[in-house]
Design goal:
By secondary structure, this protein is mainly alpha-helical. Helix content is 74%, strand content 0%. Helix 2 packs antiparallel against helix 3, helix 4 runs antiparallel to helix 5 and helix 6 runs antiparallel to helix 7. The N and C termini lie far apart (31 Å).
């Protein structure tokens, strides 16, 4: 919450935490804070983390993956579409459905 109040100056430290901490308990709140701040500088690091997080092992990992997909929809642009389309074709509906919705959100923003 404090990072959201700080705003744009908090983006770089939050991105660093996202890139260096792989525990969902730490990463998910970081992702949600970055979305609330709304700074597009976070879009590519979030997408990169999404690419690394598409094989969740447990419920926490799945929540993080979905948070990353939603964050990509909120902050991403056309550069994220190929990853989202690939995830939308997943045989895991809990990943495919939010990825398809995220891709559509980006497409309609064009």
């Amino acid at each position: 919450e404090a990072c959201v109040r700080i705003g744009a100056p908090a983006v770089d430290p939050l991105v660093a935490r996202l890139e260096n901490w792989f525990w969902p308990d730490v990463s998910e709140p970081v992702v949600r804070a970055l979305v609330r701040i709304g700074d597009r500088r976070a879009a590519r690091p979030i997408l990169e983390r999404l690419r690394q997080s598409t094989n969740p092992f447990g419920e926490d990992d799945l929540r993080l993956t979905i948070a990353l997909i939603e964050a990509t929809a909120a902050l991403g642009d056309e550069f994220a579409l190929s990853t989202l389309v690939e995830l939308a074709a997943s045989d895991r509906p809990e990943i495919a459905a939010p990825a398809a919705a995220a891709a559509e959100k980006i497409r309609t923003r064009r």
